[in-house]
């Protein structure tokens, strides 16, 4: 997981404070997830594709925190298991794998490299979309706040 710090959250914080306490956590969680979605889309665009399994394994995952007021979402490759996977390599050869294969396993090696392979960072470069992620989160929060306020007026 790649960590990102976002500055300029004063607008989002002022919107959150106007919402009822019971709704604040859900709204904050949705806001962070909306921002993480932008990072996920950028990571999927940047990931080197051979079989496509690493790209398919990228997802947004909520992560626990000791402080209940902090919400963590990460863009992570899941080591999901695949029963049968068919793919075509770049040289045109067709392959089929039977059994269980950890599809997110290679992501770390692609990102950081190995003794035999140069790094091909895709997660760390995806964080360059920080500003877009913040705007997506803020847009979600404003939309959610307007919906809650509209429902309360009825």
TrEMBL record:
It comes from Arcobacter roscoffensis. This is HK97 gp10 family phage protein.
């Amino acid at each position: 997981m790649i960590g990102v710090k976002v500055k300029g959250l004063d607008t989002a914080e002022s919107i959150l404070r106007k919402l009822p306490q019971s709704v604040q956590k859900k709204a904050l969680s949705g806001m962070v997830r909306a921002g993480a979605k932008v990072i996920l889309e950028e990571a999927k665009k940047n990931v080197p594709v051979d079989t496509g399994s690493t790209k398919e394994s990228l997802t947004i995952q909520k992560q626990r925190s000791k402080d209940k007021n902090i919400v963590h979402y990460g863009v992570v490759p899941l080591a999901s298991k695949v029963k049968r996977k068919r793919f075509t390599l770049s040289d045109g050869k067709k392959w089929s794998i039977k059994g269980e294969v950890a599809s997110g396993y290679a992501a770390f090696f692609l990102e950081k490299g190995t003794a035999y392979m140069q790094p091909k960072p895709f997660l760390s470069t995806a964080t360059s979309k920080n500003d877009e992620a913040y705007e997506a989160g803020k847009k979600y929060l404003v939309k959610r706040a307007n919906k809650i306020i509209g429902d309360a007026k009825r």
